[in-house]
Amino acid sequence: xxxxxxxxxxxxxxxxxxxxxxxxxxxxxxxxxxxxxxxxxxxxxxxxxxxxxxxxxxxxxxxxxxxxxxxxxxxxxxxxxxxxxxxxxxxxxxxxxxxxxxxxxxxxxxxxxxxxxxxxxxxxxxxxxxxxxxxxxxxxxxxxxxxxxxxxxxxxxxxxxxxxxxxxxxxxxxxxxxxxxxxxxxxxxxxxxxxxxxxxxxxxxxxxxxxxxxxxxxxxxxxxxxxxxxxxxxxxxxxxxxxxxxxxxxxxxxxxxxxxxxxxxxxxxxxxxxxxxxxxxxxxxxxxxxxxxxxxxxxxxxxxxxxxxxxxxxxxxxxxxxxxxxxxxxxxxxxxxxxxxxxxxxxxxxxxxxxxxxxxxxxxxxxxxxxxxxxxxxxxxxxxxxxxxxxxxxxxxxxxxx
Length: 402
What we know:
By secondary structure, the protein is α+β, with helices and mostly antiparallel strands. It is built from 13 helices and 11 strands. It has 2 domains: 188 residues, no CATH class; 196 residues, no CATH class. It is 59% helix and 14% strand. The relative contact order is 0.18.
């Protein structure tokens, strides 16, 4: 049974004849694709975590003691456990501020230790079930009941499952459920309990804990506020700062802007490097295929003499470039993902930013987009050489190739 040569098989044979040059072109596309894929995936993951975390927070404005502003920002963005308090009267004052729709208190507690499978930094956050709009909606949807007694909800990174018992300050707590991952340590490494349970835990710690904790019932750590529809979080935050002494209001938009500022320098650097590498790969691809066309003038002439049309020669050159760029794109995806997985912990520790992979749909779009981008390198780089090859006349090409 005879098998005719196809355009792809001819292109593969041509590429395999110059394996070193083909490998160099492949590496160039791999570096470009891997850099762009890893950078885009990393930035998308941080933005995804910030978006989900902000949604889970549920508040437009976070009010904290002015002297503890830095600790509050660090707790919110980096999930670093902290304990700070202010008078509970701030809650009513916030509710009286123009533009505030509803407000709820929270209590931040930094545990002395956490005993379980292994040591892990855990943040304790207590909320008021009667006014809460952050954890309570999740409880109603997933557990179908509020927390009672010493029940707690754990973030996904806390090494416990529903039904486990974990001690804090000498008081055992039962895990009622675990939250979905958000990529923000403030939620993923936090254990949520009711404020009554937290106050009782503090009172009992004097006789039960090696390191007791003291929290008065007239103290809270933060007030989470929602604003009315005709007000902006920034505007309400300014009013709170003006009307209430000793506190600082953080708008949710301000949190996102803080992350954007931290990312801006990184993004700019990545874009510049990616652009330079992309241009170099494009020039390298174009120069290489000009050399290929010049070296193969006799071959192209013979193909034309045997009946190949201009479009066939054009497609052959383009096919070779697409094969290289597609293989480079696949290698770039694998290499970029491997590099990101290797250095992600180091980068996240340095930047102290949230991170959560996008949904499978977004990941699929990103992979396909990266492959298309890598193919574009081959198409653009080989376009002019392919047009030049297609215009060659058979006799002239054979004569020049001898």
